[in-house]
From TrEMBL, chain A:
Domain Metallo-beta-lactamase positions: 109-283
Record protein name field: MBL fold metallo-hydrolase
UniProt entry tagged with the keyword Hydrolase: yes
Keyword set, alphabetical order: Hydrolase
Bilayer-spanning residue ranges: none
Species name: Alteraurantiacibacter aestuarii
GO-annotated molecular function: hydrolase activity
From TrEMBL, chain B:
Protein source organism: Alteraurantiacibacter aestuarii
Protein name from the UniProt record: MBL fold metallo-hydrolase
One MF term in the entry's GO annotations: hydrolase activity
Lineage, highest ranks first: Bacteria, Pseudomonadati, Pseudomonadota, Alphaproteobacteria, Sphingomonadales
Domain of life where this protein originates: Bacteria
Record keywords: Hydrolase
Cell cycle recorded as keyword: no
Ranges where the Metallo-beta-lactamase domain occurs: 92-266
Pfam families for this protein: Lactamase_B
């Protein structure tokens, strides 16, 4: 039976914004028109024998079109027998890639992001494992960059490697793989040098820096709180905010609650000024059951929540961060859990009001 | 036992029953031939044995782990100690396998259920075959008892792998079945003796971590197996009074019986006393599983001073008194002010 266009089911509200199998319009919705706003900028009808590099138009009225409708690899019951790819690559659109480290290589299973502009590429974060034979991030990035360069007729694609937090060992370990890579700029790790690099030495943490990829200018927003050197990145092309460990669907360890609240306030103000489609964090710990999450060190997470968060969650996080500021406690919300000054293994008997308490079946 | 032997073995039983004639097959003959040379488990005690310097303890990248799913260590010729690989389950419990003249006792079955995920049954069968070959016996003549230290899934998960194994009895998953398995009527005080055929295992109740828990003492190696109520790591004490009474029983036991080693089910602590957080899958520098009597006594003396819930370090183990869902030892390393 064809789906009725008046169906009240809203997949976006159901936390299922991209799932190919659960969309209300599996064959497309003609009511939306043939040329939605974001689509016009992803034209790749390049000439067969191009005379020069393709210059892509990154100017965009709304968020560039793209899709994350793949399931992330989620490990296996017996980690030693896992045979999933070590780095899972999902192409969001032609110039935006999301990579995930295999859960059975490292339980943190961090996400790294690769963005392309007309003058170069930006790799945000580098994963939790330095050993390239266990976690071939450099090899994967090189392959993507090479293929992207071929498609765009570019022989040289300068790469910038930046971290959402240089001190976070779940995101800085892969950095050594990029040491000595030609045509590569690694944002310096020490906090003062990093501030200097982004040009925010004087204005930290209220100012902002920029990484110009060529018609795609990534904004660097200082967001300490989970890490003292935490930054977030804003991509005006896809309207993504890459928030790293500050805000992600998981167990958020607040390392300094005053900074954390201040950073969320700045993000709120930023999101009011700029269109934000999704927040993309560094990890997933939550299950798709509201308020349920995987503990640390787990290699098998079959009930994971989706990665993307809607920008209204900044407000929710801010509200609850203010509530627990100054208290050593943890607080469970449907889409994230805040740990303030307590052990990362802390458990709570307090369940949020109005949230259904659903137990996940034990996978065996 | 392979399929051919299995079929002929059952046929042999049938023939024996119908015709009333013994020694009709090779296996029966082998059995009868070896009955004469029983192994002496009662003199020159304690039987010497050794623990490995290093157990298989996971790897930094679990999917690159090439170790076998079960580490089999022969403590001595008649005692094997099994340990699950940390890359197969973070619980990685230890599992002693005690051999007697007539029976084999397996204590604890790891935290992975399915045989195609880890073939514990196959490993145990291999151990039994190996032991039987060494001692000139027919594996089919040995009865296997599959029991566990206490009623937690990381200790009984693989029990069902033994469901279709011939000559095997396994413990049920209720308190009543567990107590009944050892024929106890006065848990936890009653101490029963399990005869493996010349080798005696003393068993008594040891509640505290959970209600349904036993302590096992092997009179041959004189190893005291204390399950999860006392092990080298975080002893999660759910019920303080029963736990303290169980400790008192252990101390009374070691006062009256020779004990070579005290052995728990897990290791969660490094050689330098550093805590390995719950769930970690790589413990490169872990402490030995065996503990001394001195360490047990120190922990008991320390426990006498404990009056409040909380986490206490005795120098050997962490006593987590009624804290399981409230507190842990680890801290957020990135905190700053």
């Amino acid at each position: 039976m064809p789906q009725s266009p008046t169906s009240s089911y809203n997949p976006a509200l159901s936390g299922n914004s991209q799932s190919a199998t659960s969309r209300s319009y599996p064959n497309g919705n003609p009511v939306l028109g043939y040329n939605p706003v974001g689509a016009r900028n992803t034209d790749s009808a390049v000439p067969l024998h191009g005379a020069g590099p393709v210059v892509h138009d990154y100017a965009c009225e709304e968020a560039a079109a793209g899709s994350l409708s793949f399931r992330w690899t989620y490990g296996s019951n017996v980690a030693a027998t896992n045979r999933d790819p070590r780095v899972q690559v999902v192409q969001y659109n032609e110039d935006t890639f999301v990579m995930r480290q295999n859960v059975c290589v490292h339980w943190e299973a961090p996400f790294t992001y690769l963005l392309f502009g007309n003058d170069g590429a930006l790799l945000i974060d580098t994963g939790a494992t330095a050993n390239a034979s266990h976690y071939p991030l450099r090899e994967t990035v090189d392959a993507i960059v090479t293929r992207w360069g071929q498609a765009r007729g570019r022989t040289s694609v300068p790469l910038t490697v930046a971290l959402t937090s240089a001190e976070d060992i779940a995101q800085n370990q892969g950095l050594v793989q990029f040491a000595g890579r030609p045509d590569t700029m690694i944002v310096p790790k020490p906090l003062e040098l990093m501030k200097l690099h982004y040009g925010v030495s004087a204005s930290w943490p209220s100012g902002s820096g920029h990484i110009d990829l060529g018609d795609r200018v990534i904004e660097v927003i200082p967001t300490p709180g989970s890490h003292k050197d935490g930054v977030s990145f804003y991509d005006p092309y896809c309207d993504f905010l890459f928030t790293g460990d500050l805000l992600f669907p998981g167990r958020i360890n607040i390392s300094n609650d005053r900074d954390f609240v201040a950073s969320l306030e700045r993000l709120t103000a930023f999101a009011a000024r700029n269109p934000v489609k999704w927040l993309l964090g560094g990890h997933i710990d939550m299950m798709f059951l509201p308020g349920k999450y995987y503990p640390r060190f787990r290699n098998f997470k079959p009930y994971e929540r989706v990665l993307e968060m809607t920008p209204d969650l900044i407000g929710e996080a801010l509200h609850h961060a203010r509530e627990i500021a100054g208290k050593e406690t943890m607080l469970i919300r449907p889409d994230f859990v805040l740990f303030n000054g307590v052990s990362p293994d802390q458990r709570s008997q307090v369940w949020p009001e109005g949230v259904p308490n659903i137990e996940a079946p034990r996978p065996f | 036992m392979d399929r051919r032997a299995f079929i002929s073995y059952n046929a042999a039983i049938a023939v024996t029953q119908v015709a009333g004639v013994a020694l009709t097959t090779r296996s029966e003959a082998a059995m009868a031939a070896t009955r004469a040379q029983d192994i002496d488990f009662k003199s020159n005690l304690p039987a010497p044995g050794s623990f490995p310097d290093r157990w298989i303890c996971g790897s930094s990248s679990c999917m690159d782990n090439t170790d076998p799913p079960v580490h089999v260590h022969w403590y001595n010729a008649h005692t094997a100690i099994l340990r699950q690989n940390k890359a197969y389950s973070y619980e990685a419990p230890f599992a002693p396998l005690y051999f007697g003249n007539d029976r084999v006792l397996l204590l604890d079955e790891g935290f992975t259920q399915l045989r195609n995920d880890w073939d514990l049954r196959g490993v145990v069968d291999e151990c039994i075959d190996e032991w039987c070959a060494r001692n000139g016996r027919d594996p089919a003549s040995m009865e296997l008892l599959v029991a566990f230290s206490h009623l937690h899934a990381d200790h009984y998960a693989a029990t069902n792998q033994f469901a279709d194994r011939p000559r095997t009895r396994y413990m049920g998953l209720t308190h009543e079945e567990m107590v009944g398995f050892w024929g106890m009527t006065n848990f936890p005080e009653e101490r029963v003796t399990l005869d493996l055929g010349g080798r005696e295992i003393l068993i008594w109740g040891s509640p505290g971590h959970v209600v349904s828990e036993f302590a096992y003492y092997d009179s041959y190696t004189q190893i005291l197996y204390t399950g999860d109520m006392f092990y080298r790591g975080r002893c999660y004490i759910s019920f303080w009074e029963p736990w303290f009474d169980s400790m008192t029983r252990l101390i009374e036991f070691v006062d009256t019986h020779p004990v070579t080693h005290v052995m728990g089910c897990h290791v969660e602590i490094s050689k330098d006393g550093e805590d390995y957080p719950y769930g970690v899958t790589y413990q490169p520098d872990e402490a030995p599983v065996q503990m001394t009597l001195q360490q047990l006594r120190e922990a008991y003396d320390y426990a006498k001073t404990i009056t409040e819930p909380g986490i206490y370090f005795t120098g050997t183990v962490f006593l987590c008194n009624q804290t399981r869902s409230m507190t842990t030892i680890d801290v957020n390393p990135y905190r700053y002010s």
